[in-house]
From TrEMBL:
Its EC number is 5.4.99.-. Pfam families: PseudoU_synth_2, S4. It comes from the Bacteria. This is Pseudouridine synthase. Responsible for synthesis of pseudouridine from uracil-516 in 16S ribosomal RNA. NCBIfam families: pseudouridine synthase. Belongs to the pseudouridine synthase RsuA family. It comes from Halomonas eurihalina. Signal peptide: none annotated.
Length: 233
């Protein structure tokens, strides 16, 4: 690998800025000053920039406990971005796996592995997502039974030609439910409850597939996935 490319992939420098850093004498290879951008280097070489040893950034798989008030977008807008909660190099390469709306909290996966992300989000994969919802109006007795059956059969959403796929609704108490779906339409969970005359006050995603949100993570905190967790998808 060319030295300027190594610098660009292991730091926040662009290729152009990496070449300037070399010209300024900021880079050493195996203890010796190096100014040639085209020099071929390997990961086993000891490469330093401004005295700090560098290493290539590998593929990253991150679990974030998304807080309320941040959005899953690459562009800066009205709200902070979820990627801005991460303190990692090459931030611009990371993308959320799917979306959670600004108000929704809980498990959000973030990666720079496009194929891995596609395996989770592809409609053909039918990857399940489990949500905890706090409802504005109580859901109990016969109403709870009707809602459970309706969700299992599929809900007609406003503006949609096809009903939702069968979903598993579990009533935890009068105002709290767990809903498991295996598709990802726009604001789907909130729209499903609106279709039966209710309103979601708060929504929290607790799992994606077999991967459950780490309960030691506070809102806004994150950690790298283990190899075993990555292999779940």
């Amino acid at each position: 690998m060319r030295l300027d490319r190594f610098l660009a992939e292991s730091t926040e420098l662009t290729r152009g800025l990496a070449k300037r850093a070399l010209i300024r004498g900021e880079v050493s290879v195996n203890g010796e000053l190096e100014k040639k951008a085209a020099r071929h280097v390997q990961e086993t070489d000891r490469i330093t920039w401004l005295g700090e040893r560098l290493s290539l950034v590998g593929t990253r798989y991150i679990m974030l406990n998304k807080p309320e008030g941040v959005e899953c977008t690459a562009r800066r807008g009205l709200y902070p971005r979820v990627v801005d909660l991460l303190d990692v190099p090459k931030l611009e390469r990371l993308q959320p796996v799917g979306r959670l709306d600004v108000e929704t909290t809980g498990l959000l996966l973030i990666t720079d592995d496009g194929q891995w992300s596609h395996r989770i989000t592809s409609p053909r994969r039918r990857c399940s997502k489990a949500y905890l919802a706090h409802l504005a109006r109580p859901l109990e007795g016969d109403a709870a039974l009707r809602a459970t059956q309706a969700f299992a059969e599929g809900i007609e959403l406003e503006g949609e030609d096809e009903p939702t796929r069968p979903a598993e609704l579990t009533c935890l108490d009068d105002h709290h439910v767990r809903l498991v779906i295996d598709e990802g339409r726009y604001h789907q969970v909130r729209r499903m409850f609106a279709a039966i005359g209710n309103h979601v006050e708060t929504l929290h995603r607790e799992s994606v597939g077999a991967l459950v949100l780490d309960d030691t993570l506070e809102p806004g905190e994150w950690r790298e996935l283990t190899p075993e967790e990555v292999a779940l998808f």
